[in-house]
Amino acid sequence: MKKISDVRVVATSFLVSVSDVILNFTIAFFTGSTVMLAQGLQGLSDLTTSGILYIGVKRSKRKADKKYQFGYGREIFFWVLMAGIFMFLGTGGASVYFGYQQFSDPQPVSNAWVALFVLAFGMATNGYAFSLSVIRLRKLHHGLSWWHQLIRSSVAETKATFLIDFLGTSSAIIGFIALAVFVLTDNPAFDGLGAMAVGLSMMAVSVLLIRDVRDLIIGKAVEPDVARKIINTAESVPGVLSVLDLKTMYIGSARILVILEVHLRDKLETDEIERITDDIKSIIRQNITEVQHIQVEIETPENELK
Q1: pTM of the entire structure?
Q2: How wide is the angle at C-alpha 222 spanned by C-alphas 265 and 263, nearest 5°?
Q3: pLDDT digits (tens, 9 = 90+) for 77-110
Q4: Can you list the domains of the chain with their CATH numbers?
Q5: Is the four-CA dihedral 51, 24, 8, 213 of positive or negative sign?
Q6: Measuring CA to CA, which residue among 262, 266, 267 is closest to residue 278?
Q7: Sign (positive/negative) of CA torsion 151, 153, 156, 158?
Q8: In DSSP terms, which residues pair with 259 in a beta bridge?
Q9: How far is the CA of 282 from the CAs of 49, 103, 272, 296, in angstroms?
């Protein structure tokens, strides 16, 4: 499976969002469709979110310095949070408001067929951007279902683009259905219903985004299967009797901090201890590529200290 970079995923989502904003707002102006206005707001939300994420990805890749000794990787979590808040309070709420106005006091909609064509185009472009996020998640978490990939992954920027491009695709589908029903019934209230549905979907996605990144900001540890893999890998090193304790934390998108307490066999020389420590770090980094920083502490079990 081909490798998709985080920059490509975010940049593609950004370009698709630019297209959505220009086309949907233009068509909304000429047709008077609230669905197209909601699509334009959804595109604006995606555009802003993608722009925020692009800034976040770039800033999070800065090298560690004396002030931020583990690097700037966690900064991406902050930018994802800002994107989620904007999506919920701004564009999602606005779409619901304008949709309700059209539903309660329907205004005429013209040239609906043009709007349907633009919505079909939006399905294709957002679908392509969405596919890149899916490919990247599968590459990073091979063997897991897409749901587990979405829930368990720490690649916050890709998960965010996954959600907003899924939202862009589903919103285009919702809008297409709403306008198609309007064409069949000639009832503008369906145009308002479609806009409200788009707005509510934006708000729902933003809640998922904020909830997920909250755990990463607090300091989420790796999943149990990853922790077991780290322990098993460390215990495979000759001279290591057991891992007494393991602490982990995500310090960025697909970046893990690992602190290990290990019990070594007795009567080792200092040089041997240093070699085993280096071997532990090396083999863990080889087997779990997300691990960026490892601290190995040599400890003795409490029962042997008595």
Answers
A1: 0.70
A2: 10
A3: 888 888 888 888 778 888 899 899 989 888 888 8
A4: 6-218 (1.20.1510.10), 224-305 (3.30.70.1350)
A5: positive
A6: 262
A7: negative
A8: 247, 295
A9: 37, 62, 15, 11
